[in-house]
Amino acid sequence: MGESEYAEGSLGWWIDFRRSQLGLTLVELAERAGMSRETLRNAAQGRRMRAANKRRLEDALQWQAGAIDAIARGADPAGLVGPAPIRRADGSVDAVTAVRTLLDLATSLRAAGDDAEAEETLEMATRLARRQGVLAQLADEITAAGA
C-alpha cells in the first residue's frame, strides 16, 4: 500500500489499505459508499458515523457488517473482509478476480468433501479463463485447485 496519512491500525489507515487493495480512488470509494468525500474523510479521522453510513462504507469496502466498530475496538479487520470485487469501478468484469473467486470456491467445496460440485466449479473457472485469455496467468492456481 502507498503511504497513509493515518496512524497504522486506525480506521483511516485500514480504509486506505482496503481502498488500495480494491484499486479505488478516494472519489470512487465515496461514490460507492454513497457519501461525500468530506463524510468519508471524517469517518477516516474517527469521527462518529451514523449506522447507515457505517454499513454503506463497509459494503463499499467489502467488509462484513460490524467491521468498523471492530476496528474501533482495535481488531484487525482481515477476518472481516469479503472477496475482492469481480466488477471494476467502470462496471466491467475483472476476469482474473472472477476466476480466482471460482477457484477459491472449488477449493472450499473439495475441502468440504463435495468433489462433484468442486469439479463443476473448477471447469467453470477454466472455461472463463480460456474465454477471457487469462489462462496462462492463472494456470498454477487452476492446477492447485484441481489437486
Automatic annotation (TrEMBL):
The highest taxon in the source lineage is Bacteria
Q: Where is the HTH cro/C1-type domain?
A: 14-68
Molecular function per GO: DNA binding
Output the SUPFAM superfamilies linked to this UniProt entry.
Answer: lambda repressor-like DNA-binding domains
The name under which this protein is listed is Transcriptional regulator with XRE-family HTH domain
From what organism does this protein derive? Answer: Amycolatopsis jiangsuensis
